[in-house]
Structure formats: C-alpha cells, structure tokens
Amino acid sequence: MPEKASEEALRNRAYWDRTSDEYQERHKEFIRRPEPRWGVWQIPESELEVLGDVFGKDVLELGCGAAQWSILLAEQGARIVGLDNSERQLEHARELMAEAGVDFPLVHSAAEEVPLPDDSFDVIFCDHGAFTFSDPYRTVPEAARLLRRGGLLAFSKLSAFAAVAEDEQQRVGPILRRDYFGLHAIDDGDVVTYELPYGEWIRLFRANGLVVEDLIELRPADDATSTYWDEAERDWARRWPSESIWKARKAG
Fold first, then answer.
1. 107 strand-pairing partners
2. Using CB atoms within 10 A of its CB, is residue 187 exposed (0-12), middle (13-18) or buried (19+)?
3. Rounded percentage of the chain residues whose pLDDT exceeds 70
4. Would you give the DSSP letter of residue 55?
5. pLDDT band at residue 5, thresholds of 50, 70 and 90?
6. HSE on the CB side for 196, CA within 13 Å?
7. Which one of 19, 46, 82, 121 counts the least CB within 10 Å of its CB?
8. First and final CA of the chain: distance in angstroms?
C-alpha cells in the first residue's frame, strides 16, 4: 500500500474488501461475457472500438476488480497488469485467472500513487474502476506518468448528468438534486466516489499532457437489461447520458 494513500482510499479499500463477495456473486453472469464490454449496460468493445488492437501492448487496468476485462485482453495478446485497491477483489481475480488458464501480474495498491515505473504502458484503462473510486486530481497525473508518449488513457464512469440527478437512494430521476459546479468527492457514508464537471476533466487532462480524443456517451438499447440498473433507470439513460467513456492520449 502506498504510504501516501488518502483516508478516502483507505475507506474505499475497506468497503470493497467487505462487499466484494456479494458484488461478484450478484453480477458474475452479467460481467463474465466472452468478449470485453463496457459499463452498466455491457455495450461491446467491438461496437465502441475504444481500445483498438491490444496485441503486444503493455496494458494496465487501473481498478481491475476480479480482472474480467484483463483476462479477456490477455487472451487477445496484451501484456496485462491488473491493479486494485482491494485485496479481496484480487483474490477473486486470481481464482478467475486460474480458471481461464492465464497469468499476469496483479498489484495491490490505490491508484493515487502506483508502485510502478514511469513510461511503463501503452494503454491504461478501466471500466467503472479507479476513476470512479479515486481522486482524479491524483489519479490523472499518475496515469500520465505511467503512460508512454502516444499512449492511450480510456476509462468509463457514471456521467456528471447521473451525478447531479441521483436521489438519496442513488437512483437517477428527472429532478436535479446536486450542484453541478463544484462536483468532486461524493461521500455516501460507506464509500467515496468522484466526479468532475466536463470542463474540469478537460483542463485536468491538458494540465497533465493528455489530449482528449473522444467523449463517448453511452446509450443503452431500448430493451437492454442490467444487473446494476432497472428498467426505469434504463429509460432515463435513453434520454440523458448516464455513463461516459473518456479517451485521451499522452502527447508524443
């Protein structure tokens, strides 16, 4: 564990160590598909083309959970490293790796200060991982440090639209309930998540030598199902973007 991990990172570690078993059991069939998929609605990577061909590339999943994504990319020929803040999540990852017959390094660390060398990776990504549960003002500079010149940073998370439309039960609805300006740490008492206004994300990327290539706003199909959100929330997500995938590249 990095010595400078924040209090919030330690709280989030304890949360995921405590809830990992239930989370993996609830969602295992939904998120263990035979191909990479993004987000709450599991939209295929083959449709979105976020990462492209990863064969032979050094790839870091920053907040890998049980490594479902990393296992699939390893099978595609990527040289994967999986990092997670929760040791219990990494125990699940080891089980799934053994089942799949793949092997790659797993790092137990918060994403705010990663114990890996500069310029180590061609691609850094996560799907509702570290960029949801780590402070972006610390995690974006770390990602930029770890990327090689020309390297790709790509991550999905709930959108700022969803952040301002959540009620006390963390369900989205048509009423704005949280201020947009000043979005940063959102503490629900158990876990701390993070969001920024769109312009602040762009300024943060630019300040760390990252050039934005795309902002993909995910929209589920009208008959989509999910183990995360119900039909009413799906209908909301068809009207307003509930999730975003940011793509940024380190300047060459």
1. 83
2. exposed
3. 99
4. T
5. confident
6. 17
7. 46
8. 31
Instruction: Write the single-letter amino acid at 236.
Output: W
The residues near 23 (Cβ < 8 Å, ≥ 6 apart) are 16
How far, in Å, CA of 14 to CA of 210, rounded?
31
Cα separation of 26 and 28, whole Å? 6
Report the pLDDT value the prediction gives residue 1, as an integer from 0 to 100.
41
Distance between CA 30 and CA 182 in Å, rounded? 34
How far is residue 205 from each of residues 17, 65, 137, measured CA to CA in Å?
Answer: 30, 25, 10
pLDDT tens track for 147-180: 999 999 999 999 999 999 999 888 999 999 999 9
Residue 222 burial by CB count (10 A; 0-12/13-18/19+): exposed, middle or buried?
exposed
pLDDT score recorded for residue 137: 98
pLDDT tens, position by position, 90-113: 999 999 999 999 999 999 999 999
